[in-house]
Amino acid sequence: MRINKIILGFALTLNCLAFAQSEKKEILFSIDDKPYYTDEFSRVYNKNIDLVKDESQKDLNQYMELFVGYKLKINKANKIGLQNNVKYINELKSYRTQLSKNYTSDTKVTKALIEEGYNRSLKEIRASHILITVDENAIPADTLKAYNQALDIRKKALAGEKFDDLAVRFSQDPSAKENKGDLGYFSAFRMVYAFESAAFNTKKGEISMPVRTKFGYHLIKVVDSRDNRGEVTVSHIMILKPATTTDSQEDIQKPKSRIQDIYTKLKQGENFESLANQFSEDKNSAPKGGLLPRFASGQLSSEEFENVAFGLTIPNSYSEPFESQFGWHIVKLVDKHPIKKLDEMERELDTKIRKDDRSRLITNSLTTKLQKKYTIVRDENLYAKIKALVTDKFYSSDWILPTNMKDYNQVLFKVENYEVKATAFLSNLDSQQKSNLKIKPIGKLVDYVYQNFVDTQMTNYYNDNLEKEFPEFANVIEEYRDGLLLFDLMEKEIWEKAKQDTLGLKNYYNANQNKYQWKNRADVLVASSTKMDVVKNARKLLKKDQTADFLKETLNTKEVVNIMTKQETYEEGSDNFPKNGKFKIGVSDVYKDGEFYFVNKVSKIVPAGTKTLDEARGKVINDYQQYLEDNWVSDLKKEFKVTINQEVFERLKASMKK
């Protein structure tokens, strides 16, 4: 974000929690009758005082000057309308959204979920399941039917029938016919949260009770548990099995024979990546030397491949040829990626949680708190009127809104002083037809949608009023807002102006030419080589006034670069002036520095003098920017009326020095 670029000497816009002050809030000064208070001044001073290196800025009088100057700039930014810039508005909105997460999330719940997710990520569970599908919004009768069906299957398993046979017979997961319900190994965040929780809470060898997810009811049998193997990066060479089924032993043996030939080449020292590029039949990885994206257990469709890959322990070692359901492979280990520590994964886990079903727990926690915090006042007659409008056509998405919505442009309920119109709820109801809700009777469905709508409105109201609820949040947002405005203002009024105001820049340069002076300079040619005899020959040629190009043409060949040259102009006393070099015209002796031999030739001495504007442009622009900024506050004081309450300031200084 642009705020990271705001390094203006006066650190007023750092985003940290505000320092609370207990003194009475009074008007310290005003700018065009806009008041600024003692509490903000003391809070900002105390917050930034340890960051200020200039001792003069720690003086309260001096700090007052800086603070007033800062507020003058913000007033200027608002006066010229920078607060209406779309880019500024979007950036401020984005920052507020990020910061508000600390206030709209239950930190205890979030922390518990992070710790739970991390602890589970240390393990890998192997499980099988049987799925009985039922719609997420199914009516109670259908839900109960699916539950009882799952319960009956569980009884069969507990009575001794094989779980995998039951999966083939009863599971409505299409893959069960092939995998017999076996899901392989998985860790945290690989399955939906309810399924994951049931799997991690079921002991090895046991079968869970029916578990409800958005897909239906699951029976989960935990087959095994092991430590998480982390992730691995490998390259592979693959020879595919024949595309069609064949009984020919020759066709069956061809892939095996070919992979064995490649393996022999590897053992003879040939490059793995080159062989993969030339022979591997995995078209995606072959051009990259066989390199595959890093993966964890259960992410590939071949358990054999995963086991061989994780079995390799030494980087750059490779496996013997092995067979999978796809063909024959040789795998080379590139790198292993073990599970990180909790503090290293905290941000990553938080992101995963917010994208996962777990996030509902955080949302529900906040909703519960808000339901206790706010009293919802509803117009019961209006609500009854709305319920009477909704018919069973809702279930088939054929229900339509009343033709005259003006009759419902009334307040349906209030959250504190925030009024929500019936028209908004009706529109929400209309949109919910696409959700395929099956709750019956229709009155209960309306109540369900209404409660969710109220919860959303409460959350929105709470979020919109964070500044009123939390003074420290308001302070941080205000400082960030000012920081963005100040950056935009500086860019417009100072930085860009200094670059584009060519006449002003030239006048400043003419008035300050004494600041832009060259010292004595020397044009130096430096020739270097690892071979002393080459440099000696170069020295002889330089003494004959030969050029750098002549040296390279004479001393280098097509196969070998014996001599290298560099020609630059150096100021007298500069740190990068060639060693053993003398500030006079002529050729130096040969000297050694590190592994190289050198010779220098000074061809010209340029006397000290004034730099041209082009030669000093970068420095002149920087100095001109500072000049403009130094005089800027004085100009702003003429543009705006500043009134300081000196009596209040003296009392404030006295209290802050205690």
How would you describe this protein?
The longest helix has 30 residues, at 471-500. The protein is α+β, with helices and mostly antiparallel strands and 658 residues long. Among the domains are: 123-227, Chitinase A, domain 3 (Roll); 231-337, Roll (Chitinase A, domain 3), CATH 3.10.50; 374-466, no CATH class; 518-610, Chitinase A, domain 3 (Roll), CATH 3.10.50. α4 crosses α12 (342-354) and α18 crosses α22 (617-639). The model is unreliable at 1-23 (pLDDT under 50). It is built from 23 helices and 21 strands.
Mean pLDDT: 88
What is the helix tally? 23
CATH class of the domain at 231-337: Alpha Beta
Helix content, binned percent = 40-55%
CATH fold group of the domain at 231-337: Chitinase A, domain 3
How much of the sequence lies in strands comes to 15-25%
The total of beta strands comes to 21
Largest sheet: 5 strands, antiparallel
Q: How far apart are the first and last residues' alpha carbons, in Å? A: 39 Å
Radius of gyration using CA atoms only? 38 Å
Reported CATH architecture of the domain at 231-337: Roll
Low-confidence stretches: 1-23
What class would the helix/strand composition place it in?
alpha+beta
Which overall shape is indicated by the principal axes computed on the Cα atoms?
A: flat
